[in-house]
Structure formats: structure tokens, C-alpha cells
Amino acid sequence: MSTNSSDIKNRGIYFTPVELADFVINSIIDNPNANILDPCYGHGALLFSAYQRLINLGCYDPKIHLFGCDINWPSESVLSSLSRVTAIKNLVEDNFFNLDGQLGKKFDVIIMNPPFVRHHSIPGETKTLIKGISKDLLDLANTSDLWAYFVIHSLSYLNSDGRLAAILPWSFLHSDYAQPIRKHLASKFRCIKCLSIGERLFDNTQERIVVLLAEGYGARSTEIKTAYSPEIPTKEVRWTSIEPSMVLDSADSSFSATQEKQYLVEMKKRLNFQPLSDFADVRIGTVTGANGFFVMGTEKATNLGIPGGWQKPILRIAHDIAKYAIVYARDLHDVLLVIPENASLPTSVQSYVKLGEDDKIEKGYHARNRARWYSIRPKEPPDAFLPYMITQIPILVLNPDKVLSTNNIHGVYFSANCPRPAIKWIQMSMLSSISQLSIEISSRTYGSGVLKIEPSAAKQILVFPGDGQSYPEEVSNKIHVLIRDGKRDEAMNVVDDWFSSILNISKSDMNNINKCYRRLKMIRLGTD
Known about the structure:
The protein is an alpha/beta fold.
């Protein structure tokens, strides 16, 4: 069965570049007589590389050692090529999760580039099947993408002391649903190596990849190493060792940023930077269920005849946070439609509500749970704002005018016992390399390089409360001008210099923290 481009996109199929296949195979296979399985071989790139690797290792007949499974039978041309490296009888056309002993054996090495299908794109029947099959090995979260099921299910086909090599999306390192998978692998393999590659290797996708190399199946990890390469490595990789307990026991058991975590902990001992949660709560903004209906420009609100009391100034997206740091609330141009639950509707508003009903907004989850679907109860205006998803340097912006925000922006609510002078210090310290490094470490990264700061991650941001020192208004004004002019990097340098002058930290140490931050940021953005 042939595979067209739309099938490839819809099913998350990205064929493995030859150079990547060679790197993966050369890194995982060192036994000339190893039996090897690719459970989603596609065009066979990994099998071709494995054949050549076995030849180089002195294998007499590599074809008898290579096996493959794929839900689609290859085209005639691909099949003809594959027949030169493996016996056709060793290829199975079936869903990997339906094999049920068809291969008749377990394997010494499993190699794979599984489909990068998002969890919401997995058909319901398929998800029920694969979740049921994988449950005995590891009960995966419903938000798990398809690659996760391939990785876990493949373990049932491994011999004792076997090896696994998988080409995975960056979500393996950063997503919540992957955290139990990382822990499970660390408890099942003696040695794990994880290489992040910055280059986007697959056409038509922003997804970047991670190469997972695991050895010694059946033993608890005693060796875990990580590395980063901006592109497919052409020379020996420089690996960094991680303490296995950091993966097995930590709630934030990511394979990445280990050096940076250790350095940040070391520096924190000398400084009074504390988690933001010691001073404030962080919550998502107002959830409307239909921002396109409830959030509108002031001009539209006027034209619709919305009473002024029903218009509440609101920040719509992360870009608005920086704007709000510069202008006054009266200069904002978006408002939230807040119709009191017992209010009589003017004719113009009735017409607008009818438009919403024509679009079936009242049938949405949030609308159905309101007494009147169009009557929102907005959250209390926060004391400050923090972006939820952002690419560049996130900043904390105070909210003296009590403006609202959508759920694209977090609200920061300072506790009653937080000293008022500390708030401005906390705001300024958020621009320091120390705070920004803690954000990079605690937040999630999307394949496109977007930083996703969940409320739980925001609460872990390290901030400085001032310790009773006089607030430097002159420095603050200089920072404000730089932020206004879009020069956040320069603003960060000013803050770092100031903290170096008042805290027990040298410029050299602060520069090292800044280098750690910039390294993680470059890895996230794929610009290293």
C-alpha cells in the first residue's frame, strides 16, 4: 500500500534521514548476531542502516537478523530495496499492537521512529486498543501521544539485557504525560542516554527530536547521560552524567537541564532568592469558553450598544502584557463583555446574544454551566500578570488599574502577608538571569520553541523580595525604558549588574548563570 503526503501528515509519519538512521544504529548495535526489530519501519531507513552495521561488525548473513512491522505494506520499489537487506518473510503487515506472537520471538535490539500523532488525533477505538494492551506494562495518561504507546509496548518484545533506540519528539523530555514514561524506562534499563537535537529534521513540521538510547533491559538504571547537538552528530557525542535518583525519585524528573539545575541550587544557597509561591498565588485568567464572542474591541462594544458598566478592560494575549507595562489602562482597546445575571438586555445586546446562539456558543462546556450562558463571572483582577505561553523573555507586570485577563495570561495574587515593598523587588528580580533560568528549567517546551509556563511552574520561579533594602527607583526607571523599547536582553543585563553589586554574588558567577540560561534558551529555540 502506498503512502501519500496527506497520509503522512495526518498519521504523524516522518521518514528517517539516512544520517540520523546511521547515528542511531551505530550508537545502539555492537553485536554482529543481534536480532533486531523495527515495529514501524516505514521506508526502512533504520533497517538499511542496521544491515550495513551488522556487515561492518562481521555478521555472515544480516538478513536473517532483521525484522520489521508496519501497518502499511511498502510500495513495490521500497519492497524491492528491502529484500536486499532482510527476508520478506521477516516483514509483517499489521498494527504493532495486534501482532500477538506473529514474530514468534523476542529481540536483542528494538529500533524505531514511531508516528508523532497527537493524543486527540488517535481514533477512539485505536486508543482503547493500545491503552488496554500497554496497561500491564504502564498505565499511560489519556493525554499520551502515539509514540508513547509504541515505546512502552516495545518493551514486551525485548530479551533480557536487550537494547532500545527510539527517535522521539521533544515532548519526551518536557510533557507531563511523559514523566512516568521516563521514570519507567529508568527503572527498566541499566544505562540510558538521551540526545536532544536542535535542528528540525522532518519536513512540514516544527517538531524537534530526541534520540533515546537504552541498554541493559531488566536492570535498574545506574548510568543516565544527556547531551545536546544543534544538528545530527558527525563526531563523538559529549555526554553529561546525571544522578539516577534525579530521574527516579524527583517529581520533576526531566532528563534535561541537569547541569543547570545543580548550578542553580548551588547559587541559591548563597542568595535569598525564594519561590514565587512564598509570596503569591498564580492562577489562570478568566475562562469565557468563547473569547471571540466575549472579548471585543472598544469600538465594537460601542457600536453594539454595550452599556459602559458591562465593559471591563482586559488583556487578551501575552503581547498585551508588555503593552500594559507601558501604557495606561485607558489606552487598552479590548474589553470583556460582563452581563449581570439579572440584567434586562437592551435590544442591541439581545441581537448580539442571538448571534452567539446561532453559533451554538451556549452549548459549550463553560456556557452550559452558567445560570445564563452569556453572563460571565470574571475572576477578581490580579495584582500582576505573567504570560502563559511565550517565546522570548517573560516579564511580570503589575496591575494597579485592576484590569482583567483571559486564560491566555496568568494572574498573580500576592498574599496579604507579603510586604508591599517586596512586590516591586519581585517584579524587578523576574528579569534577572536567576529567575529566568528557573523559568526555563521548571516550564515546558513545545516543539516550536514556545515556553509554556503552567501555574505550578510559575510558583517555582525564584524571586528576590528585597530583604528590606531600599528599592532602586533610578535602576527601575532605566529598566522600564528598555522594556518600552523592546530591549529585554539589555534590561536583564542591567538587573544582573545591580544584583551583583548588592548581593553575595560576583559578576563572574552571575555571568555563568546567564550563560546557563542562554544555553537552555538556545536549545529550546533551536538556535544553538
